[in-house]
Structure formats: structure tokens, C-alpha cells
Fold this sequence. Notes:
Elements: H1 4-19, H2 22-26, H3 39-59, E1 67-68, H4 71-75, H5 85-98, H6 102-121, E2 128-132, E3 135-138, H7 139-160, H8 171-186, H9 188-196
Parallel strand pairs: 1-3
Antiparallel strand pairs: 2-3
Helix pairs in contact: 1-3, 1-6, 1-7, 3-5, 3-6, 3-7, 7-8, 8-9
Amino acid sequence: xxDMRSEYLAAAAAAREVIALPEVALRWQEPSALAQMTVGALxxxxxxxxxxxxxxxxxxxxxxxxxxxxxxxxYAPLTADLDSGSNARVRATAAEEALVGHRAVLGRMDRxxxxxxxxxxxxxxxxxxxxxxxxxxxxxxxxxxxxxELALHTDDLCLSVGRVTxxxxxIEVAIQTLIAVAAHRHGDLAVLRALARRERDxxxxxxxx
Length: 209
């Protein structure tokens, strides 16, 4: 059984090492591998998605009376449309948080990781966290979504600065989560065909984010 908390902390530590690269600081204002985001904005988004919102989630009181959803259901409403309101807000927030510069963004992640190492240890089994209005995730499921964010954006950041992507802790969790999102949206048969019969996958169902 996967120890999701250890997997998360390892994935976050690997992301931190990439954010700390001198190339990231030097290319802070340059375009990244993600459309309409600079390297700095991508790094700032990686810190927010990987650590900051998790910190807030476990600091808040445990929610009661909300519907418990899966990691797959959490991602299901997201769209790849760059012009969608949610994606535009993500880019705007990332650009704003990057304005403080490389050292400050890296410091934010270091402080967040320090707090999370102790904060996660004290969380009870089955702890619930609020993710959207009226919806909650079990902590381990939420950690799976954070591991996915860390793996994806660590790879994005390496590509953005011309570095080979290192071994990514938690990548198996990230892949399993992506497949679960595809199955949630399209059904198991469509995923089976996408994995083994490309000619029967006209909708590219595995492309979920």
C-alpha cells in the first residue's frame, strides 16, 4: 500500500530542487513550456499547487456535511481551454506571485515544506479536506492530486529551462490518477481502448488535463 504522505513529501522535495536551479532564476522572465506563462510564473504556480493550498487545507477545520469526492472527480470539471475563466485565473495568480522573484518564491516553498513535514504527520487517518464549495476529499486522495501537480509541473519546469527531467518520486501515483480521471470521464472501456487500440481512440481520452 502506498504511503501517500511520504510519496508527497518526496515529490515536493524533488520539485524544490528543480525550482532552486540557477537556470530557473536566470530565465525567470522568459516564456516557459506552458502557453502564456513565464518560467517564474510556472515556478510560482508549482509552489502554490504543490504546497501552499495543501497547507491551507490541513490548517482549516475538518469539514462536515459535504459530499466526499474522489481525486478523479476533483479533476473531472477541469478543461484544457486556455481561455476558460479558471485557467485565466490560474495564470493571473501565478504571474502575480512570481513578481517577488526567484529567491522569495523558493523561500516560500521551503517554509511551506517545513510546516507540512510536521503538519502532515499529525493528521489522523481518513482526515477530510475541503476542496470546493460543498465537496471534500480524503487527505490521501487530495495528496494524490498534489503529487500529480508536482510531477507534471516539475517536468514542465525542466523542459522550460533545458534540463533533463530527473526521476520523479510519486510518478506512479500521478499516472494512476490521470488514468482514473480518464475513466471517470469516459468509462473503463474507452481507457482500455486508448491504452491498447489507438485506432479505437478518436477522442484521445487519456488527454485529461
